[in-house]
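Box 3.1. Reading complex inputs
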Amino acid sequence: MSKPWGPHDIGGQEGGPVDLSDHETAHWEWQIDAMVRLALSKGLISDFAELRDGIEHLAPEDYESLTYYERWAKSLAYTLVSRGVVTESALAEKARAIRERQQAEAAS
Amino acid sequence: MTDHDHSRTFQADHPEPTTDAARVGLALRELLIEAGHYTADEEQAVIAAMQGASPENGAKIVARAWTDAAYKERLIENGGEALREAGFDIEPYEFTVMENTDDIHNVIVCTLCSCYPRSLLGMSPAWYKSSSYRSRVVREPRKVLAEFGVNLNDDVDVRVHDSTAELRYMVLPQRPAGTESWSEEKLAALVTRDSLIGTQRDLQT
Amino acid sequence: MTAPKFIAGQRVRIADRTPPVHHRVPSYAKGQIGVIERVCGVHGEPEKFIRGDGKPAQRLYRVRIPQTKLWNAYDGTESDLLEIEIFEHWLEPAQ
């Protein structure tokens, strides 16, 4: 068996029992999913391959600790920043604003 | 803050995630909408379409194959064309149907990520995307299937299909005995999502 | 579009290499020998989408490998199979 190429290349590796419980998809997860599809249909990315590539380049710790849609979110962000569609600083600024809004709403 | 801010995610019945990674995703979403790359309405339409897909779609195809032998042959020979006959199209992916028989049990996985024919089966289950399923079902399928309650003796061959590229798979489960006179609609209601993935073999009447 | 290089039933070997870009060959399959189960269609090339438009498009095949050949101490039967899709440029004829 050849060496695994990235954190995603796990076929044949050992693992624990499969957790059979199902989780409902949260609204924000549908939004991430829709965003990926729209990024494709609007030509912001050329193919799903770009998104998979981004996910495959996540650090192994990230790959393992992030949830499925968090991986997509990070991958798409990385890809769109590299393509110049958004800037890293605008993203960070917006994420901070969202965090502050959430904290304010939680406190009220 | 105006209440016309369509880019806002927060709605009382839709709790927001509070991890950094998820916030990056929401931030990206707001930036893309603000820059006019897409609108909240377009987003809603895409979400509605995704939520509208369910295993009932795949079940309809199965019921038709069970009641129409010629259709079943076409489905196995050229899944994409047979799918279009039934009003679905997943191009550019190649729809590929694997038939279960008395001697063969099929099970589907995508070890590299989690490719799945969502328009036929709806959203993929959490376990399908999980590391344990993806890593183990290629290596020890019989053991994994047993965890799902599928126990196969050595007379039955197990075939694992790893969706590594452009094909999207659906298992055609065996028609349960005693259903010979049933309508397509009644047959379709028997078909479960897990039987279309291969983690269930016997359907209950 | 050129004719497929391989035909159903032909024995093939999956290349064992690691290009530094996204590619769709799982490590467990690299270097393995199998049989072409069917010739599939032509698709944009995943490795090339990262830098370009996926072209030239490549022929895809389904390759069938006995599980007992893939894994040490496989706990199923000799007839159990694994089937995967591999692009043409990853395959070579095998004896």
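In summary: Residues 20-51 of chain B form one domain.
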